Amino acid sequence: MPPIKKNQALTRLGEAIRNMRKAEGLSQEELALRSDINRSYMGSVERGEVNVSVLTLNKLLGVLKRKPSELFKAAGL
User: Fold this and answer.
1) What domains does the chain contain, in order, with CATH numbers?
2) Whose C-alpha in 2, 10, 26, 43 is 20 to 30 A from the C-alpha of 18?
3) pTM for the whole structure
4) Which of 19, 3, 13 is nearest to 51 (CA)?
């Protein structure tokens, strides 16, 4: 598999988070609220526009009841 450019990796990560959120039946706003992050920032994460921190990923994954390995596998990373 060829190396993934940074923006492609962030896009894939955001898509994986969005898919997990939808699988849990959560709105973007509800996930942001439960994760204690700004809803606008949450949208940026899902669109792959920001390099989300490990701490923020940890918050999101806690709400989504997922492991980091599941997220990275779903993102193809």
Assistant:
1) 6-62 (1.10.260.40)
2) 2
3) 0.87
4) 13
